[in-house]
Amino acid sequence: MKILVTGGTGYIGSHTVLSLQEAGHDVVVIDNLVNSSEESLRRVAELSGKEAEFHNVDLVDEAAVEQVFAGAGIDAVIHFAGLKAVGESVREPLKYYYNNLVGTLNLIRVMDRHDVRSFVFSSSATVYGEHNPIPYVEKMEIGANNPYGRTKEQIEDILSDLGDADPRWHIALLRYFNPVGAHPSGRIGEDPQGIPNNLVPFIAQVAVGRREKLMVFGGDYDTPDGTCLRDYIHVEDLAEGHVAALNYVAGRAGVFRWNLGSGRGSSVLEVLRSFEKAVGEPIPYEITERRAGDLPAFWADAASALADLGWSTTKTVDQMCEDHWRWQKNNPQGYAS
Ligand code: WQD
Asked: Which segments constitute the NAD-dependent epimerase/dehydratase domain (predicted)?
């Protein structure tokens, strides 16, 4: 099929473009490059031997999105494009609501006009909020506790209402846990702009000498080693989960929700130790105050993705750290030359 991937130059997007091409699909990418580099697509082409068609387009520009669809013969869409920093969303909610909601509404309106109704949406475990028991299960009530998470939740609601109103839609809502790692070639990987918000890219930048030390946000949680537990998932497994969901909805109308996670929690210190093993030397860190908004622990119930999609994670935290380190070591400044 010909698949449009929005946000396809980003971390998860670029890995998914590669998996789609390896599965035999043709890929068109829309990205506004606000938080990523087109270099990632050049490297994906090097790995797959296939060029993805690229359009430097912002989804808030509906006319430009319309131009991409006109005559393109797109069969389905995987939608990653969106702002995704929780802290920034608290400081700048309007930017997040406008970009994430208007961009998505433009995209689905253009899809509808072109009779393209197979849609895989990049949602997030953050929609489960702070009141659900762990492990998180798809049928639980959701309630995000930050503007970024609320944009994901509201887009899930929009898509759910659309699917209820119009049975021609085939929609997968994928709730990611904590994506980590890189393609084993070390040629593509996570390249956050500015100071990384997330744990593993920050550790990787300490290891490669770009940052002085890791600040561990809290060592006094009610967990085995006092640090928070999260469900880390290799970005390669995550990309395969998108291909599996796309295949599932290609043949079925309706709205489907799946957690994409390992079903296991790992602590901050466990991940740090694993990364030190990959690097082969200690990584400096300091345990500091808790970060506002962090939950002590959460991980996925991954049963339904296995039952419905035949998909489950295959890679360990050690493999995630080895692959993440190979990318960072070979690309100390990310995609910047
Ligand atoms: C993991 C753990 C931190 C950085 C976030 C978003 C979520 C999703 C995934 C988009 C926590 C600790 C982190 C650091 C640390 N993103 N940490 N020092 O918060 O589970 O989820 O990313 O969808 O929406 O909320 O991931 O990597 O930020 O933190 O100690 O420098 O690492 O306290 O316990 P999180 P994270």
From this structure: 3-252
Enter the DSSP assignment of 99: I
Q: Which residues are catalytic?
A: 148
What does residue 305 show for φ and ψ, rounded to 5 degrees?
Answer: -65, -35
Tokens representing 336 are 């910047």
Report the distance separating Cα 136 and Cα 142, nearest Å. Answer: 10
State the distance from the centre of ligand 1 to the C-alpha of 2, rounded, in angstroms: 34
- C-alpha 244/C-alpha 173 separation (Å) is 12
Tens of pLDDT, residues 182-227 = 999 999 999 999 999 999 999 999 999 999 999 999 999 999 999 9
CB of 83 shorter than 6 A to ligand 1: no
Q: Please, what are the domains in the chain?
A: 2-180+232-261 (3.40.50.720), 199-230+264-307+315-336 (3.90.25.10)
In 3D, which of 332, 331, 329, 327 has the Cα closest to residue 15?
A: 327
Contact 103, 59 (CB under 8 A): yes
The residue behind tokens 């000498």 is 209
* DSSP letters spanning 178-205: EEE---TTSSS----SSS--SHHHHHHH
Distance from Cα 250 to the centre of ligand 1, integer Å: 33
Residue nearest atom 11 of ligand 1, based on CA coordinates: 228
Return the residue whose CA atom lies nearest to atom 4 of ligand 1. Answer: 199
313 C-beta neighbours (distance < 10 Å), count: 25
| Bridge partner residues of 36 (DSSP) | none
For residue 197 and ligand 1, the question of a CB distance below 6 A is answered with yes
* Any ligand 1 atom below 6 A from CB of 126: yes
Could you read off the pLDDT of 223-279 as tens digits, one per residue? 999 999 999 999 999 999 999 999 999 989 999 999 999 999 999 999 999 999 999
Nearest atom in ligand 1 to 227's CA: 34
